[in-house]
Amino acid sequence: MRVFRGRASSVEADRDASRRLLSIAAGGEPAVRVWIPHRQVAFGRRDTRLEGYDRAREAARDRGLPPIERDVGGRAVAYDGETTLAFARAEPVADFRTGSTDRYERATAALERALRTLGLEPSRGEPDGSFCPGTHSLSETDASADGRRRKLVGIAQRVRADAALVAGVVLVANRTELASVLEAVYDALGVALDPATVGTVAGAGGPTDPETVRAAIEDALIGDASNTADVSVKHFGDGQ
């Protein structure tokens, strides 16, 4: 298994680094990456087809988050460049028509285990009006919000003929800024969003340090692989 840590020097170089995971998996070796992406709003392909897409990109820029278009996932996700984590695990596939449900299940279970080691009790699903809505999400009761459930984790999947990538986002801290950015972006897109449903690990009573959360998720994703006897690690250069 290959494990990648840190982030590359630019948004585009960092995206190229993540794309490498699929190439590695296509060669028969699984790969894992958990990191803090550069500051950005990552739009999904469905967003690009909406009338308000250009306005949403401008709303992101106005708030200091460069807009990009990502390969995996649904609606827009905001990364603050400091506390928002991304994770990805790529695996070889023998038949692209099967296995998606199992891959989702294993990734979701791994994220649940990681969050529990951090003192949280995540539940599957998401509140109505969540960012990047999807079937595969994890939520938690926010200690600062009178028992309101808030979304912490979103999970998506990309499948090719020879490899599959299960990836997602984990919000660790900085809820106020992230909720404000997402509210402006989704409003421009004309997509329903309740900013009160944006949650963080810290807000749910977990650690505020993203490195603590990152390490827990990486351990869970590696530990959930079928073969962990031979793990090689590559570090990128900017310390994130």
Automatic annotation (TrEMBL):
Pfam families: LplA-B_cat (PF21948). The keyword Ligase applies. Residues 120-146 are annotated as: Disordered. GO terms for molecular function: ligase activity. Gene3D superfamilies: Bira Bifunctional Protein, Domain 2. Residues 26-229 form the BPL/LPL catalytic domain. Keywords: Ligase. This is Lipoate--protein ligase family protein. It comes from Natrinema versiforme.
